[in-house]
Amino acid sequence: MAKEKHIDYDHKQKVHFDKISTKYELHYSDTHSNGYRKKFFNDPMCKGIKVSGLNILEAMCGSGQTTEYLLARGAKVTGLDISPEMIESFRRQWPNCNAICASIFDNKINDNYFDCIFVVGGLHHLHPNIDRAIDEVYRILKPGGYFCFVEPHTRSLPDYVRRLWYKLDPLFEDNEAAIDVESIKSKNSNRFEFISTQYMGNVAYLLVLNSLAFRIPHRLKYLYTSFLISIESVIAPFQDKTFSCFAVCQWRKIKTD
Question: Tell me: domain 2-253, CATH 3.20.20.30, correct?
């Protein structure tokens, strides 16, 4: 019964992202969104990690929004995504990278294979199977390897608005929801060392990165991006979990004897 439910949600996400892939790429992979990602996602995720030469998986990669950042720092990157449309876009943009069109739950990757795994906004599409996804990350990650991810989180004021929005907006599937970072950490305390957890995201996150969700015409983003990123940069150091939109996490798989 549980397996059938998982397969159903997996398929729904595949169909959903195949359908919205063109608009999604236009809004989430443009210069403005990539500038936001670098400052508030990629730099915090990679802090203290020398990625040059490392074998890295960008899971739920879309067209590889994090891949460009990693390649520029000398990493060897593989992209994995369940959507054929998204993984084809990944292949076009990064022809020298490996690309796997598969679910995170059924990927045929060997145990202890990757030095690092990055997920940006992918886990919250996997309800009710978040724990299974973390199990799979743990399986394919080398001991001592890093699991770095960015996700919308629960127990915040923005999440109350997000819950209602997800129910009403057809851009989101019915199994999408923020993740409970603290609960997931509690379940995995014997498997991962939690290097850092930063709670971030305010005005630029909403109107620059998520311009598609707010139906802002893409051509207008240049008018306000620099200004809003400057505002968010000032606010970010003072944010806590209550008022932030997402969590940036860096974990490390515990080495066992």
Answer: no
